[in-house]
Amino acid sequence: MGGTLATGAQLQAAFDAAALDPAHPYIDTYTVDDDLHLILPPRRPNGYGNHSCDPNLWWIDAYTQAARHDIAPGDELTNDYATSTAIPEFRMACACGSPLCRRTITGNDWQRPDLQRRYADHWTPGLLKRIRGSSTPTAAQP
Prior knowledge:
Elements: E1 4-6, H1 8-19, E2 29-33, E3 36-39, E4 50-51, E5 57-61, E6 64-67, E7 78-79, E8 91-93, E9 104-106, H2 113-119, H3 125-133
Parallel strand pairs: 4-7
Antiparallel strand pairs: 1-3, 2-3, 5-6, 8-9
Keywords: S-adenosyl-L-methionine, Transferase
Protein name: SET domain-containing protein-lysine N-methyltransferase
Pfam families: SET
């Protein structure tokens, strides 16, 4: 993946700066650990990846994604943003078209038991640590 490791405060400062810069309004990031996030450089191939509620990629370690199932040539590579973000304020409308589409993706989706079952150990390490440490998910569940 590559990028810059940042604390939550540093990530918030980067978000604030991006909001003021129309040339760079979006920051691609994911949660590595409790207060550690990876900010990806702009225009990297992963930055052009899309979310799916039934993705064909999933995490195998802190910085690597692998195929979740066979991917045909020309298929779009997708991942579930829920497996890599724990920023509570994160919300994104979804229209991925999957029968599993949640319609809204949030930074609290890692707490959903259905997603925890679906992805098992295939989360960024920071989220996996939270999942293993939480006895009862606290977010509203479907």
